Amino acid sequence: MTASSARRLVLMGPPGAGKGTQASRLAEHLGVPAISTGDIFRANVAERTELGQQAQRYMDAGEYVPDEVTNAMVADRLAADDATAGFLLDGYPRTEAQVGELDRMLEAAGVSLDVVVELTADVDELVKRLLGRAAEQGRSDDTESVIRRRLEVYSEQTAALVDVYDARGILVRVDGLGSVDDVAARLLDALS
Ligand code: ADP
Q1: Cβ-proximal residues to 122 (8 Å cutoff; 6+ apart), any chain
Q2: HSE-CB for 106 with a 13 A CA cutoff
Q3: Which ligand 1 atom is at minimum distance from the Cα of 98?
Q4: Which residue among 49, 92, 114, 119 is least enclosed by CB atoms within 10 Å?
C-alpha cells in the first residue's frame, strides 16, 4: 500500500494528538475529502440544527454522542458523491458499535478500508496541547475537567479499537510528537 494508492483511510488517536491538522493535510495530498465527525458536530451546533442540539450536551461534557446519532450522520456523509472514490475519516469510529457499523456501510458499498493510522502522543503532552488550544480558540470542550474526561473516555472506549484493525493487518502507528511538518512527513513515510 503506498500513499498514493490508499483511498479509504481512518485516522485515530487521542484528543490533542493532532488528528484534525494532519487529516486535512493528508486528505489534500491524497485527493480525498477529510471527514471529521467533531467538525460536523461543531458546525451543526453553530447552526443550531436538530443534530447540533442532540449532540451539544454530550460534547460539552466530554462524552461521546450516542452511536445511533453519530452512525446516521456518517452514513449520510459517506453516501455523498465526493466520498465514493475515497475518504479520510477523522474521529470515527470511536466505539466498538461504530467499528461494526462502518464495516456494514462499506460492505454494502462493496468497498473496504485500506489503512487505519494511529497517531500517538503521551498524556502530559496531550493535556498541554489541549490547554494551549483552549486559550487560543476557546472551544467549549477545552476546559481542563472536560479535557481530562475526553482523555478518559478515549482510553476506555476507543484506545483498544486499534487492536481490531491491527489484527486485520491494516494498522499503521505514527508518533504524533514534534512539529506539524515533522509529523506530516512521518505520516507520508508510514503510508508509503
Ligand atoms: P477531540 O478528539 O479533540 O476530543 P473531536 O473534534 O474529534 O475532538 O470531537 C469533539 C466531540 O465530538 C467529542 O468529544 C464527542 O462528543 C463528539 N464526537 C466526535 N466524533 C464522535 C464519534 N465518532 N462518536 C461519538 N461522539 C463523537
Answers
A1: 177
A2: 19
A3: 23
A4: 49
CATH number of domain containing 17: 3.40.50.300
- What's the CA gap between 24 and 34, in Å, rounded? 6
Instruction: Please say whether the beta carbons of 32 and 26 come within 8 A.
Output: no
- Please list the active-site residues: 19, 94, 133, 139, 150
Residue 56 lies in a domain: yes
Instruction: Measure 38 CA to ligand 1 centroid, in angstroms.
Output: 5
Q: How many domains does the chain have?
A: 1
CA distances from 98 to 114, 161, 186 (A): 17, 10, 28
Q: Could you tell me if 39 and 147 are in contact, meaning their C-beta atoms sit under 8 angstroms apart? A: no
Residue of 11, 57, 60, 64 best suited for mutating to test ligand 1, as the one with most atoms within 8 Å of CB? 64
pLDDT digits (tens, 9 = 90+) for 103-122: 999 999 999 999 999 999 99
- Give me 71's grid cell: 452512525
In a domain, 182, yes or no: yes
Q: Which domain holds residue 78?
A: 7-191
Q: What is the per-residue pLDDT across 57-96, written as a single tens digit (0 to 9) for each?
A: 999 999 999 999 999 999 999 999 999 999 999 999 999 9
